[in-house]
Amino acid sequence: MIPPVQMQSPVIPPAASLRYRRALPMTTPHPTRLEIRPFDAPCGAEVRGLDLSQPLADADFAAIHRAHLDHHVLVFRDQRITPAQQVAFSRRFGPLQRHVLHQFALADHPEVLIVSNIRENGRPIGLGDAGHYWHSDLSYKERPSLGSMLLSIERPAAGGDTLFADQHLAFEHLPAALRAAIDGRRAEHWYLCKYAELQARSPWRPDLSPEQVAQVRPVAQPVVRTHPETGRRALFVSEHFTTRILGLPDDESRALLAELFAFSTQPAFVYRHAYAEADMVFWDNRSLLHLAGGTPDDQRRLLHRTTIEGDVPT
Ligand code: SIN
Predict the structure, then answer these.
(1) 149 CB under 6 A from ligand 1?
(2) pLDDT in tens, 73-118
(3) CB of residue 115 inside a 6 A radius of ligand 1
């Protein structure tokens, strides 16, 4: 049994008082009157006062960067931006990564993955079941993702939420016995871990070519990683991509992973994002797991995802 976690007071010092306001005029482009409003949730904040279709002032970039580290999920409302503008904003944080299923990238912007359940002429226009299991994006690469951005283009009348689980809190609340069991351990992450299961549910999922398989060979990652910018430790295993804990017998590894998956995604650590029209959501894959909450079959959902490359986890 997982002991329930009481979360009356936040572990992170409350950032509710943070305001990032600067006087005009300064440099070109001008910084805006930016406001960060934390959600009443274990993680997440809304960023107000920014139009992502405009060039970003260095001071605004610095404020967003800080807020991203503090809150792990940022929501920018009403961002009616083009793929080129999403790519330009994403690139401010680092080089972009392309998804191995290039079939679902935008033709003229290969860094943009189409996440959608929409079919045109019987064919899926995007990766309809992305995020079906809890995961951290591209944890199966040697350099997993720093963060990802999802721009909501078409949202369903019901469902379609994305859930985020704070893995710093998960690590900090981990029972001592579990902590001891994973101390110093590494685990294997593999893109194909659940692929056959997903293909059985979604037969439109393509088989991978030999070149694609070669891009996603299994990698070993620390079970607990240290955030390279804040120094906070976070659990770094997921139901979607972690196959086994290295150095343990199979049955022990399976049992331990099952405990970690259940513990790390319990509601006390989760912010659930229900999209408004043209929401842009930017999260930190070094701090969070995320999950697509599911969309009813008769509803259309379309988002554009960009993914920023991060460090080799330590
Ligand atoms: C993802 O895992 O990147 C997609 C999440 C979602 O569709 O809500």
Answers:
(1) no
(2) 999 999 999 999 999 999 999 999 999 999 999 999 999 999 999 9
(3) yes
**Which of 86, 303, 304, 308 gets mutated to test ligand 1 (max ligand atoms within 8 A of its CB)?**
303
Give domain 97-277+284-309's CATH number out of 3.60.130.10, 1.10.10.10, 1.10.150.130, 3.90.226.10.
Answer: 3.60.130.10
Is residue 15 scored above 70 in pLDDT? no
Domain residue ranges in the chain: 97-277+284-309
The finding on whether 130 has its CB within 6 A of some atom of ligand 1 is: yes
Residue from 308, 295, 307 nearest 116 by CA: 295
Q: Report the alpha-carbon distance of residue 295 to residue 161 in Å, rounded.
A: 8
Q: Measured from the CA of 162, which atom of ligand 1 is nearest?
A: 8
